[in-house]
């Protein structure tokens, strides 16, 4: 990122202050297709898609050198079951049953990959049906293991990935996944976890995507406030009532899913895909807004015990984490880890002058941008009444002290 792009980005976010994600996201009438890698820069993506938070599709030219596209696929373009069995057959994988609705998702079981591939082969032989139902391998964390090396190269457009940077620091989890399944497998209507961005590459096969911009999902809620499980029902696909963008993703192509866009995805053929969820300075405020909404929903659900339950606010945080995967305390820890790593990247030389560590992987201007985004969101966090009820006595540094460090780092940069 150069200085001009940083100035452009920070001006963009100043214009968004106080506005909800659904109030600022444009509604395009189509999804752009990016054809050539050599004519499309990180700055192009950042300005045209990441900041305005709109989807796009990258051509297969962006992934043609990936190892997974060479080794996981037969010459006819089908999944190479023999290769997968030889290299990963004994690995236990999560498998969802697409034919069973459990709330707004599917129940999961775990099985060795060799058993899933055996099922998949039988499913194809039975003309894409099975008494076991339609099973879809989802959320396989293959990328945690060394056996994933060489499968893909992280596209530069998605390299500012705080979510996986944070979890890699803890070495306990990640948000990098493999999906694979026969034609007919699908993912119900949803928005991605924490209102993260995501990207998805078809290693082989084709997918059909249905996209709804932020806020459009509100028109789909039922009388109880619930969202639909399947938006392909005729009443939901009436474009006059509910604007929807449809995208068919071909083999090798890469889809960028913006923050807070609800979507539903169907495999049109036997398909394997690699998918990442990611958060950075461009959607950090969306994540914070979402977490506040999640806590509010929990508080409303258990409001009748507010006056009789000791530590009611603490229990709300516990419930929130069990439902959403994160609460306000861990959100602060997330901000702290990324903030401290960015502060280490910049060293003060003299007033108004900074240099960036050579091994950062980020340019100086991008590091300053990250610090400014964390500072803005953290300033909102520390004054939030519910965060002020969190026991922060063991936090190092204290949230207010970390905010001061960020603001002092920004003060050494040249004025915009």
Automatic annotation (TrEMBL):
**SUPFAM superfamilies attached to this UniProt entry:** Clavaminate synthase-like
Q: Which GO terms describe its cellular component?
A: cytoplasm; nucleus
Q: Which UniProt keywords apply?
A: Iron, Metal-binding, Oxidoreductase
State how it assembles.
Interacts with ETF1. Interacts with the ETF1-GSPT1 complex.
Tell me the organism: Myotis brandtii (Brandt's bat)
Q: Which GO terms describe its biological process?
A: positive regulation of translational termination
Q: What is this protein called?
A: 2-oxoglutarate and iron-dependent oxygenase JMJD4
Establish whether keyword Lipoprotein is in the entry: no
InterPro entries of this UniProt entry? JmjC_dom (IPR003347), JMJD6_ArgDemeth/LysHydrox (IPR050910)
Q: Which residues form the JmjC domain?
A: 143-295
Q: Which cofactor does it need?
A: Fe(2+)
Q: GO molecular-function annotation terms?
A: 2-oxoglutarate-dependent dioxygenase activity; catalytic activity, acting on a protein; metal ion binding; sequence-specific DNA binding
Which reactions fall under this protein's catalytic activity? L-lysyl-[protein] + 2-oxoglutarate + O2 = 4-hydroxy-L-lysyl-[protein] + succinate + CO2
Q: Please give the Pfam families that the UniProt record associates with this protein.
A: JmjC
State the similarity comment: Belongs to the JMJD6 family.
């Amino acid at each position: 990122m150069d200085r001009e792009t940083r100035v452009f980005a920070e001006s963009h976010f100043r214009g968004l202050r106080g506005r909800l994600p659904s109030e600022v996201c444009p509604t395009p009438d189509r999804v752009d297709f990016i054809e050539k890698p050599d004519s499309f820069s990180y700055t192009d993506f950042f300005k045209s898609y990441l900041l305005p938070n709109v989807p796009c599709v990258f051509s297969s030219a962006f992934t043609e050198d990936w190892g997974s596209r060479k080794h996981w696929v037969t010459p006819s373009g089908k999944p190479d079951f023999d290769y997968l069995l030889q290299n990963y057959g004994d690995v236990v994988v999560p498998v969802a049953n697409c034919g069973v609705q459990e709330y707004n998702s599917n129940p999961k079981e775990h099985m060795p990959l060799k058993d899933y591939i055996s099922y998949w082969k039988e499913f194809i032989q039975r003309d894409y049906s099975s008494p076991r139902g339609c099973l879809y391998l989802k959320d396989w964390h293959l990328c945690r293991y060394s056996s994933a090396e060489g499968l893909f190269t992280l596209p530069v457009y998605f390299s500012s990935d705080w979510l996986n940077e944070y979890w890699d620091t803890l070495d306990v989890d990640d948000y990098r996944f493999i999906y694979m399944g026969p034609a007919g497998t699908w993912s119900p209507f949803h928005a991605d976890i924490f209102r993260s961005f995501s990207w998805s590459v078809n290693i082989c096969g084709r997918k059909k995507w249905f996209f709804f911009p932020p806020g459009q999902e509100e028109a789909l809620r039922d009388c109880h406030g619930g969202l639909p499980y399947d938006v392909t029902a005729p009443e939901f696909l009436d474009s006059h009532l509910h604007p929807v963008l449809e995208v068919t993703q071909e083999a090798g192509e890469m889809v960028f899913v913006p923050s807070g866009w609800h979507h539903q995805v169907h495999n049109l053929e036997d398909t394997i895909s690699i998918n990442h969820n990611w958060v950075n300075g461009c959607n950090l405020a969306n994540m914070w807004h979402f977490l506040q909404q999640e806590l509010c929903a929990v508080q409303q659900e258990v409001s009748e015990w507010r006056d009789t339950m000791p530590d009611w606010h603490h229990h709300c945080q516990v419930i929130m984490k069990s439902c959403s995967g994160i609460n306000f305390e861990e959100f602060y820890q997330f901000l702290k880890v990324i903030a401290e790593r960015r502060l280490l990247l910049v060293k003060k030389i003299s007033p108004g002058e900074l240099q960036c560590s050579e091994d950062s992987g980020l340019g100086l201007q991008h590091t300053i941008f990250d610090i400014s985004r964390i500072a803005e969101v953290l300033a909102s966090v520390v004054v939030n009444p519910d965060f002020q009820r969190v026991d922060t006595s063991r936090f190092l540094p204290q949230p207010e002290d970390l905010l001061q460090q960020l603001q002092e780092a920004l003060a050494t940069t040249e004025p915009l």
